[in-house]
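Standup notes
- DV: blocked on the single-chain target, sequence here:
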Amino acid sequence: MTEDARTARIHALLPLVKQLARRVHRMLPQADFDDLTGDGCVGLIRAVDGFDPALGIPLECYARRVVLGAILNGVRRLDPVSERVRRTIRIAERIRYALAQELHALPAPHALDERVPGLARAQIEAHRGTPLSLDAVLPAGERLEPDAAGDPQTIVVRRAERERVRAAVAALPQRQRQIVEAHYFEERSLRSLHGALAVSPQRVSQLHLLAVARLRAELDASA
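- DV (later): unblocked, structure below
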């Protein structure tokens, strides 16, 4: 086959790629349509290059299977759960239904573990890799704690509060400010400060209480 004939076949079958990509995209809207089309084009080139007319199958039928397989392989690569894990769970489900028909009751979990090696680990990996939907009810035992740490409004409010605290500390008398800064910012104990301030430990405690009361009053007034 000449290069021109090969290129003509590929261009002629491009609508088939887009048709299959649209079909998969309707079933999996979270998948990117352009990515699906790109995977399909790779499959189309492989189909054209590997096509054997001696098999008696039309090129379009052969290309449809290869293109669809390439698209689905691309979707599988996006799955956080490996195909090996998915396959293990599918095998376990088939055995489970077969046993249910035979026993007229659902089999115990340990019965499946004995028949399908690695099932327990596969179920754990599938559970960990399956994303949760915020539009659906959470599974039993699952909780989501809201995190507003990155919210711009929260950041601005926290910065404003820190500035208020800094200003209130700076307005304290010198000894009270030294005690607050050493105790709360340098994490030094109150008992260790009496030597540097040349006062008794009892006086350090009194100055600390006065500083805290003054800060509370200042912050309440500016709230």
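- Follow-up: The CA atoms of residues 89 and 123 lie 7 Å apart.
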